[in-house]
UniProtKB/TrEMBL annotation:
Organism: Nocardia vinacea
A Pfam short name: HTH_1
This protein's name: LysR family transcriptional regulator
Start and end residues of each HTH lysR-type domain: 1-58
Assigned keywords, A-Z: Activator, DNA-binding, Transcription, Transcription regulation
Amino acid sequence: MELRQLTYFVAVCEELSFSRAAARCYISQSAISHQIARLERDLGVVLFERSTRAVVPTDATMRLLPLAKQMLSLESAIRATVRTSGHRIRLAANMSFATRSLSAIAGARAAHPDAEIEFVIKPFRQRITAVADGDCDLALIRGSVDEPGLAVEKLWIEDLVIATSAAHPLAPRDQVTLADLSPYPLLLPPEQEQVLLHNVIRAAFADLAAGPTLGPPIPPDHTATMELINRPDAWTVLYADSPTEGLVVLHLAEHRLRIPVSAVLRSDARRSPILTTLLSGLHRR
């Protein structure tokens, strides 16, 4: 049994989908299925009843899940305990924050040549847990969290990007309004995976006579680019640093689609000079 297998196991339990768990863990669906099968062989039990429609945890899974979470929490605690303090910073984020983060990291290393700064890729919930457990010093998130022992520092406000295929009827326009977009299908990830994004869309359309026309959710193993190419009448909303190759970016006449980006830190965290410089770099536009 390996800790990574327990990580994948917890992800499948929480997502109830091998494809969503794979996307969350940044590996292929076949790889996560293989590792879960290995874990089942090692333990001599079936952990999930699989069908084309659902992934159902077994009784053995429900007994294993709290222990697996405890093991992963202990791993984070061990890493936090043995880490050298002062010169090493661990920043948890996802790839959409890479450009901004790496620029701030470069500035912090220039100001502190002895600094060790790691950029750690983690999905949203694991970022929060890593900070709470002390495994990471800060995490970048969109929106906010309200949890005991954690502090949230707003960094910047991000404009969301409207994207369509080149064949969309609005693609030739220099500017569009939300009213212009309303009749066309809006493609988004499922709401349970992007609650904040759906809330921003709802708030933006709240004062309009017609709300957005929601199309089918984007599956976790599909890309927005491919979905828009397959649906040239549709549009989507992307974060500012998302890849837009093959898409047309439309400028929104009203600047309503905006979202806050924040840093999450432990409330009792000591602000070392390196951490202070890194946060300053993240604040700077």
